[in-house]
Amino acid sequence: MTQLSGKSIIGFRRGASDGYAIHAINPATGEKLCPTSYSASLEEVDEAAQFASKAFETFARVSGKDRAIFLRKIAENIEDLSDELVERATQETALAAPRIKTETARTCHQLHLFAAMVEEGSWVDARIDCGDSNRTPLPKPDVRSMLQPLGPVVVFCASNFPLAFSVAGGDTASALAAGNPVIVKAHHAHPGTAELVGLAVSRAVVECDLPEGVFSLLFGPGRDIGQQLITHPLIKAGGFTGSRLGGQALMKLASSRPEPIPFYAEMSSVNPIFILLSALCDRSEAIAKGLHSSVTLGAGQFCTNPGLVFIPHDRSEKLIDGLSELIATTAPFTMLTPGICSAYREGAEKLCRNPRVELIAEQKVNDTGSCLVGAALFQTDAIAFLEDQSLCAEVFGPSTLLIEYSSREQLIDCARSLEGQLTATIHADEEELRNSRDLIAILQMKAGRLVFNGFPTGVEVGHAMVHGGPFPATSDGRSTSVGTRAALRFARSVCYQDWPDDALPEELKNANPLRIRRMVDGRMTNA
Ligand code: NAP
């Protein structure tokens, strides 16, 4: 068993234990979990940044093949901890053991996927425009470009993915894959899980003979340690998953530094589902069941949780009755943290107080002293929805709002009124979908992923996945935080003009020694 110390990991050494104390709380029982974790000091923040900056000089030049070995080693070390992770993470999050096991597998899969990508190497988008000294009136320079890493990246762990979006999660894996050292700011809700994974990553750094500072893990409050990190002059980018308020505060800090840096925040999304008449006529019962599973999956604590469902007023009865019955008979859920629990209760109470919203089903929970909550189903109509912007707010937990629309115009107006989203879903038959170009055109502008006849929860980790979307879903709608494209966030193009062949990076040499796919004079080739 790994002995947890609650101390930060700063390069190859451990932090002090005289900082602000952080206690993980078992949300199911309310008990404090041992050991206490200790906030890093400002000196330790600086030390981690200095180590990372120094390590960058070497790590940026490590070949894709060696970076792949490192990423696979991290995955192997995490797999070795599997049982310990289940024991600790279930206590810290109240998530069930199968969920933790699946998330561990997903975390390792992500690392392997990035490893394969950097090992193959073509992801660097090498482009070569060959020079021509005989061109008139001016000779054409030889211009070659490829992606290069940015520098030390700060990653903020997410509360709702203690593994897949935490210490060695998507942001860390993509930043490391692109050649950047990473400093992780642990989430206060699962410090023990963070330390276990942090030690696994740290061990991999040593085992792969990489420089001290490629990885550090710091404990401490976001408003203190997190802000110090994002404003540290040696930090060159950040990744975040969490609340809109927290994400925006950090976005502002990142952009108002003397040297502004990219900050990729995934924040708030209500993932609208548009049910069209053909789907309602054909599959009311199946849609009710699918919706119920999606709304309640993981106690609704997913960024892709469907928070708004638009349904035609005609023939809505069967779906509403079916879904109401399922919601009312769903067992209560333990939320991840007392803070997330009270935010959910407040969000649900606000909807209850709204005179234009009806609570049509709920699972009552009387024990308000714990993190236990019940699922809830609310209903309103398109006119009220269009007149009250507050109905678009994310209620993070197992609830959803049904919005009945009476005309195509209302449906289109509702779609148009939405903020940026991670996902948008349409349920229809194929003919009705073909006739819905107006709706599709709007949703394409609003969301990063469009789902047809499915549900938005369950984000496949792959090459084509887009887990992003216009603000406030993310801080930069051009990016994704899931899938191999995520590495592009932590890289920038660098161009080499008229360089001698032997001084160029391997990826840009004439002979293409890495055999990667490149664009040479406008044509894609492996030659
Ligand atoms: P959070 O409060 O935004 O915290 C996420 C991370 O950011 C934590 O490390 C936190 O530090 C840090 N942080 C928060 N505010 C900050 C600030 N002003 N300056 C610097 N750092 C800051 O999110 P959470 O604790 O995970 O959950 C709270 C709420 O966020 C939920 O109720 C839900 O509404 C939303 N949420 C949304 C998603 C999504 O994917 N859409 C996912 C998770 C949560 P500390 O460790 O000190 O808290």
Topology (SSEs and partners):
Layout: E1 9-10, E2 13-14, E3 21-25, E4 32-38, H1 42-59, H2 64-80, H3 82-93, H4 97-120, E5 127-129, E6 143-149, E7 153-156, H5 170-177, E8 182-185, H6 191-207, E9 215-218, H7 222-231, E10 237-241, H8 244-256, E11 263-266, E12 273-275, H9 277-296, E13 308-312, H10 317-328, E14 333-334, H11 338-353, E15 358-362, E16 372-373, E17 376-381, H12 382-387, E18 399-405, H13 408-417, E19 421-427, H14 430-434, H15 437-446, E20 447-452, E21 491-497, E22 518-520, E23 523-525
Parallel strand pairs: 5-22, 7-8, 7-10, 8-9, 10-11, 12-13, 12-19, 13-18, 17-18, 19-20
Antiparallel strand pairs: 1-2, 3-4, 5-6, 6-21, 14-16, 15-17, 22-23
Bound molecules: NADP nicotinamide-adenine-dinucleotide phosphate (NAP).
The site of NADP nicotinamide-adenine-dinucleotide phosphate has 28 residues, from helix 7, helix 8 and helix 11.
Low-confidence stretches: none
Report the count of strand segments. Answer: 23
Average pLDDT for all residues: 97
> How would a crystallographer describe the biggest sheet?
7 strands, mixed
Quaternary status: single chain
